[in-house]
Amino acid sequence: MKNRIAFSKGFLPCAVFSCLLILSGIFSFVTRGLNLGIDFKPGSIEEVEIKGAAGIEDIRAALSGIGGVSVKKIGSSSGDNYQIRAGVKESEGGKITEALVNKYGEGNVEVLKTDFIGSSMSSSLARQSIFLLLGTMLLIWIYATIRFHWDFALGAIVALIHDICVMFTFITWSQLEFSTTTLAAVLTIVGYSINATVVILDRVRYNLPLMEVKTFKDLLDQSLSDTLVRSIITTATTLFAVLALYFFTSGSVKDFALAMTVGLVSGCYSSIFISSGFISFVRRDWKPEYGIHHARPKKLGGAQAAV
Fold first, then answer.
1. Could you tell me which of 34, 123, 188, 280 has the fewest CB atoms within 10 Å of its CB?
2. In this predicted structure, what is the pLDDT of residue 195?
3. CA-closest candidate to residue 169, choices 71, 277, 292, 265
4. Tens-digit pLDDT profile for residues 212-244
5. Comparing C-alpha atoms, which of 203, 191, 198, 204 is closest to residue 238?
6. CA distances from 235 to 107, 114, 155, 265 (A)
């Protein structure tokens, strides 16, 4: 039997800390709001060819007088084509071209395509994003209920909600632009976090009929100790790749990497303390004879084999 770390002693303090953190995020959302990107508010999208531009930051500086500007390179990396998004009205779409012409000259700027996102379309996209997030969590809850037990599944969902709230707390306080790229980071963390949680729950289920324990907290402590190295290594290796994106890219990719960094740390933390703490609270009156399974598994496979 491996050394058992008393993770259960941190369940209550971590729950209090997380509640205070999320409450601060709610306060920030009410007082500051989200810095919505062009995807979620009306604005203009233009594809332009610019000759003589020094790069994305140079173009962004030329458009500094226009609010909500997002610039990214499209096509070949050696080309001069850019996609520019700005929070301007349809009647003011010419401001983008005018600012670029003033910076680079009329002969060096050619507008290839112009689109405009209306308020109804941006509102529809926001609703679809919410439904997508809720639908994803519902499917995860159904899977976890079938795979484990209703309280295990609910604990996993509580951890996911926690991670989403922590990410939104960071986004509101930092005023990171909330766009479809940021939403993609949130959904990625939902999938990553549930994977880490499932590995821990799988170990709990495996240990349940094998260990002689008096409380469910002891069982959780042993299971968390068994999977601790795996949880840390998986998070750290993924974090290395995400940090590389953050330090060596710019624009929306940099925002994606920053949101992912916060989500990865939160996901590892919630899988260990929030999900397990919730399950421990639900099973506070648990007795050894109430285990999910009472027969020793024939083979250690799947997620357990990776521990």
1. 123
2. 83
3. 265
4. 767 788 888 888 988 888 888 988 999 999 999
5. 191
6. 50, 41, 20, 7
